Amino acid sequence: MTTVFVIGGARRLGAAISQGMAASGFTVGFTWHSDEARAEATATAIRQHDVRCATVRANVARPDELVNALDNLAMSVGLPDAIVVNAGVFPLPVSISNIVESDIVEAMRINTLPLITVAKWLYQKSTQDGDVRRIISIGSLGADQIWKDRLAYNVSKAALATAMKSLARSCAPRLAINSVSPGMTIMPDDPSDNDAAAPSAASIPMGRYGTPDDVVDAVRFFVTTTSYITGQTIRIDGGHNLTRTS
Questions:
Q1: How many Å apart are CA 153 and CA 45, to the nearest integer?
Q2: What angle do CA 174, 179, 181 make, to 5 degrees?
Q3: Tens-digit pLDDT profile for the chain (246 aa)?
Q4: What is this structure's pTM?
Q5: Is residue 180 left, alpha or beta, with left meaning phi > 0 and alpha meaning psi from -120 to 50?
Q6: Could you give the CA distance from residue 83 to residue 52 in angstroms, rounded to a whole number?
Q7: Which of 14, 61, 89, 133 minimizes the number of CB atoms within 10 Å of its CB?
Q8: Contact yes or no for 152/99 (Cβ under 8 A)
Q9: How far apart are CA 126 and CA 146, in angstroms?
Q10: Using the 8-state DSSP alphabet, how is residue 61 labeled?
Q11: Residue 3: beta bridge partners?
Q12: Structural contact between residues 10 and 57, judged by C-beta atoms closer than 8 angstroms
């Protein structure tokens, strides 16, 4: 039985990933930070698939809390075969005149550094017995597209993309580490203030916005595919990256 942990798995895309893994018959453990009611609702939805589920509250910006959460999830449902690192923030735009160092540091603490914490934890828990475990990082097109007044986000996601590739090399052959980078993904049941900044669907080659299922399919691919694939990124954006250079 495959066991998958989702870091930041209680709401929006994280909840979709958690429930998508459960729909595949996988045991699921996930962390949540502030919305206990949403975490309970997601756990209830997961258990409707007749799979085991464990949840732990954790602030991923604090490495000690994240490690404790991973330990607690492992004690509840076992060592994971795969971990999806989904927790992240998308700060509001800030002009260069108003940005401060702490804005960038905070984005890095949430968007970038948890991947390193997770990889170190899973690497130390794994052995070289041929059982390769997986990590899937949820990245962003913001790693290589430069968006006006989004310095903290662009820097944190670019660093995340580089960290994924560096970790993939350092952690092989015990771990296979890859990334899924969604484009504009609409969450109809949980809209965001950032949805207003979405590009026109007509500007996307596939003619529509992404859905949570599109992202879940890519995550499931990396969870189940050959471990010989590592250090790779799949963009889930309907080809939108092909139309932009900045």
A1: 31
A2: 175
A3: 799 999 999 999 999 999 999 999 999 999 999 999 999 999 999 999 999 999 999 999 999 999 999 999 999 999 999 999 999 988 888 889 999 999 999 999 999 999 999 999 999 999 766 689 999 999 988 778 888 889 899 999 999 999 999 999 999 999 999 999 998 888 776 666 556 556 788 889 999 999 999 999 999 999 999 999 999 999 999 998 888 754
A4: 0.93
A5: beta
A6: 16
A7: 89
A8: yes
A9: 37
A10: T
A11: 27
A12: no
Q: What is the pLDDT of residue 159?
A: 95
Closest CA to 217 of 189, 242, 182: 182
Q: Structural domain boundaries of the chain?
A: 3-243
The pair of structure tokens assigned to 71 is: 């330990």
Structure tokens at 186: 């609409």
Contact status, residue 143 vs residue 93, Cβ threshold 8 Å? no
Element housing 114 (H / E): helix 113-125
Fold observed for domain 3-243 = Rossmann fold (3.40.50)
Confidence (pLDDT) at 190:
62
**β-strand 133-138 against 82-85: which pairing, if any?**
parallel
The two structure tokens encoding residue 166? 């560096």
> Which residue matches tokens 């991973």?
70
Assess contact for 13 and 38: CB atoms under 8 A: no
| Structure-token match 């993309």, residue found | 161
Q: In angstroms, rounded to a whole number, what is the distance separating the alpha carbons of residues 188 and 64? A: 34
Gap between the Cα atoms of 98 and 111, Å rounded: 21
